[in-house]
Automatic annotation (TrEMBL):
InterPro entries: DNA_Partitioning_ATPase, MipZ, P-loop_NTPase
One Pfam family it belongs to: MipZ
Gene3D superfamilies per the UniProt record, alphabetical: P-loop containing nucleotide triphosphate hydrolases
Organism: Qipengyuania oceanensis
Protein's UniProt name: AAA family ATPase
Source taxon at top rank: Bacteria
Xref: SUPFAM superfamilies: P-loop containing nucleoside triphosphate hydrolases
Length: 270
C-alpha cells in the first residue's frame, strides 16, 4: 500500500458498550465537515450500527430536503481477509480516509483490520473490566502484570509495520486508546486507570486521548442520523451539547490525522 492510499482509521475494541460506533460516526462526519473524502466499512454484519446510522442520515436528508456532509458506507459480511482488502481497494479509490467500525467481540476480520490500521482507535470506558482488553493488573496494587493477547497482537503488528515502512512505503501505525465516558467514574478509580494506562503505554507505545462523555443526546441522534456537528438541524442546543461538541473537536485534534491540504472545509468545527 503506497502513501497515496486512503488513511485507514480503525475503531476496534473486542468489548461492547464502549461508544465505539458513536465515536467512529462522529469522527467520520467531522472529517467530512473539514472537506475530506470519507468512506466507511462496517465489519459487524449483525449490528450494522455505523451503516444504519448513515442510512438514517440519508433518509433525514431526503425528508428535509437538505444536504449534509457524509460518507459512503458498506457492510462487509464475512469472507476472507483478501476479500476485505479487495473491497477496501474499491471503496477507498479517490478517498482521503476509510473508517472501519468493528464488532465488539473477537473477530478474525476485525483483527486483520486492526493490524492494517494507520490509526488504530481503541475506545474504552474507565473500568478495569475494559482495561483487561489491553492489560491485566494486580488485584492489590493495580500495577500492570502482563499484556493481554490483543495488546500483544497490536504490538507485533506495529513491529512488522516498522520493518516494512521504508521498503513498502507503509505509514507507521499510530495506536490511540480513547477514554470515553469518564464523567461517571469515581475519582480514585479514575486515578488508578490513569496510572495503569501510563505504565502500559510505555511498554506498548500507544497514546491516550480523552474521548466522549456519556450523554443522552448520542442515543437520541441515532434515528435521524444527525451528529453534534449538524448545527442548524438540531434545534436548540443546551450548554452540555456545546461542551460535547468541544469534546469531539478535541478528540479529532488528538488523533492528529493527515488532513488533505487542498480541501475547503464545509463548516468549521466550532
Amino acid at each position: 500500500m503506497s502513501s497515496s492510499a486512503p488513511h485507514r482509521i480503525v475503531f476496534a475494541n473486542e468489548k461492547g458498550g464502549t461508544g465505539k460506533s458513536t465515536t467512529a460516526v462522529h469522527v467520520a462526519m467531522a472529517l467530512a465537515y473539514q472537506g475530506a473524502k470519507v468512506a466507511a466499512i462496517d465489519l459487524d454484519p449483525r449490528q450494522r450500527t455505523m451503516h444504519r446510522y448513515l442510512e438514517n442520515r440519508a433518509e433525514t436528508e431526503n425528508k428535509r430536503g437538505i444536504s449534509l456532509p457524509g460518507a459512503t458506507c458498506e457492510v462487509h459480511d464475512g469472507g476472507t481477509a483478501q476479500e476485505l482488502e479487495e473491497r477496501v481497494a474499491r471503496l477507498g479509490e479517490g478517498m482521503d480516509f476509510i473508517v472501519f467500525d468493528t464488532p465488539g467481540r473477537d473477530d478474525e476480520l476485525a483483527r486483520h483490520a486492526a493490524t492494517e490500521a494507520d490509526t488504530l482507535v481503541t475506545p474504552m470506558n474507565d473500568s478495569f473490566v475494559d482495561f483487561d482488553l489491553i492489560g491485566q493488573v494486580e488485584g492489590d496494587s493495580f500495577k500492570v502484570k502482563r499484556l493481554s493477547f490483543y495488546a500483544e497482537l497490536i504490538w507485533e503488528a506495529r513491529l512488522k509495520r516498522s520493518r516494512a515502512t521504508i521498503e513498502q512505503q507503509r505509514r507507521e501505525m499510530d495506536w490511540v486508546v480513547v477514554r470515553n465516558r469518564t464523567g461517571h467514574v469515581e475519582a480514585r478509580n479514575m486515578v488508578r486507570i490513569e496510572q495503569a494506562l501510563r505504565e502500559l503505554s510505555k511498554r506498548v507505545g500507544f497514546r491516550v486521548a480523552q474521548g466522549l462523555s456519556e450523554r443522552v443526546i448520542y442515543r437520541e441522534l441515532f434515528p435521524s442520523g444527525l451528529t453534534l456537528l449538524d448545527k442548524g438541524h438540531l434545534g436548540e442546543l443546551g450548554t452540555s451539547h456545546l461542551v460535547a461538541r468541544q469534546e469531539l473537536r478535541s478528540l479529532l485534534n488528538s488523533l492528529n490525522l493527515p488532513m488533505p491540504g487542498k480541501r475547503e472545509p464545509q463548516l468549521e468545527l466550532a
